[in-house]
Design goal:
The structure is a single chain. By secondary structure, the protein is an alpha+beta fold. Among the domains are: 165 residues, BirA Bifunctional Protein, domain 2 (2-Layer Sandwich); 89 residues, no CATH class; 85 residues, no CATH class. Helices cover 49% and strands 8% of the residues. The strands form two sheets. Strands 1-3-5-4-2 form a five-stranded antiparallel β-sheet, sandwiched between helices. Strands 6-7-8 form a three-stranded antiparallel β-sheet. The longest helix is centred in the last third of the chain and has 34 residues.
Amino acid sequence: MVPKIRRGSRTHGLLVYLYGPGRRDEHVDPHLVGSWDGFASDPGRDTSPDPDPKVTLARLAAALDLRVKQAGTKAPAEHVWHCSVRTDPGDRTLTDAEWNTVARRLVHAVNLAPEGDSDGCRWVAVRHADDHIHILATMVRGDLRRPRMNYDFKKAQAECRRIEKEMDLRRLKPGDGTGAKTPTSAERFKAERTGRPEAPRETLREAVRQALAGTATEEEFFTRLREAGLRVKVRHAPSGDALGYNVALPGDRNRHGEPVWYPGSKLAPDLSLPKIRLRLANGTAEQAAPSAADGRSDWSPPARERRSVTGIAERAADLLDDGDDNAATQLVGVGELLDAVAQTSPAATRAELAAAARAFERATRSHVRAERADTRALRSAARGIVQAGGALGRGEDGGTTAMLLSTLVLVTLAAAHWHSARGHAQQAHASRQAAAHLRTAYQQAAATPMRVLHDQGRALPEAQRRTHEATLHAVLPKQGVRADGTPTRTDALVATLAQAEQKGHDAEALLRQAAAMRELDTAEDVNDVLVWRLRRLAQLPARPGEATRRPQAGTRPTKTPANRTSERNAPGVTVRPAVPDPRSRAPRR
């Protein structure tokens, strides 16, 4: 059950809308289900001998405004309190009597008309659809004083949670006031009329988040916004310092033909300019030079960056597992990393990764404040991902994408556990949603490399297979790893151990190191997680079989379409997308 509260100054105008046909003829049988005294006139069901809905509506508006007029200048300028209450689409249809109970409990909870208070404010509840009602109240009491309405939204939310439990409705996650502002009804209707898949507010929020991912300076942030195709307006003080910024979508205009501007703070609480400056100051994103351990020099920049970032993500998961409040900063960095991966991911995984980044955005905000805010490692990782360019869906690019996604699933599950321990229901749910999208993206990215590894594991000599399966049993006796001949559960892991041993590693010691890196209980497939950890630790190619095809000395590799794509993704080369979608194209360098 979702309450939405607004304030206004036109009692009669709101009643005209509530009893009218609606913007799209969606209002059906508008009628009262409750009022302050139970005897208010109902324009929708007037039973008088000669009913006139307009006269009845004017009479109702006058009755509601009576105390407002008596209070005169003492009445608030915006004296109308308007609350719409909607049930979930899967809920049963409530009766008029039940909606009356809901309305009475809400006006009591927010202190408009407490039960037993004869001087409570006047109110009515109008129903014109099966799934919601509108409560209209005038905020002047019978003693002509204003009601104390502090924190009315939080009180209404808390009462709705109690009503859901008592009326056996879907129980929503309690919020903490840190969520981003949702689009208004007008914004949603406008998006439908103009053919947009979502309201501009949501498109802009995602585009601004992506522009912020890995940004090192304020100037770079504004440059990325403009390069993403957004209109940007920076507000300056007389000294020339920036005070704030507004963004607008090209083509999104109001009735006067002017751009519809949104301040960053209205997109999300953490996207205001002061909050962005604090993030930049706490964790300056400085891209470190790739180390020699990041892989062979003939691997592409996206592949090397993804391999390096996987280790950074593992450390973020460890910090979240520690349960310290300072891990709150890691959530912000993980959010930036997801945004960076989403905008540079292969086409096959892009939709799921964008959905994961969008879901996890809710998990990055809570009232927990870290004393030691340091997100440099994760912000540098996000910067490196963006600057390395788009990854291909095949070869080493595709393999390292699967390697990174396998770790990011565990990171988001660690975030869900961290939030759950603090009672952050919405953030924990958002983290689990992000993990589900990441799992789907991982399955898409890992399908080919894991199939190759399974084939290589099955092709090993029987004696070698038995040796490595015995190692698995010795190191992981409780992980359900099977070596009894049932199909392919351990083939990829056995193949990886064999390749690591061939490269000179102690297979058992390496496996123990991989298993001890962090817990495996939250992994959906322990074998897959260990495969990618082992391949990263042993510096094995993420796409097995690709590394064996090295060009011979003195020869020059043929430029295939894939080679040309890799060249286009190299740093310093600008790639201009055919369609300027602010949410999907990476910032140009």
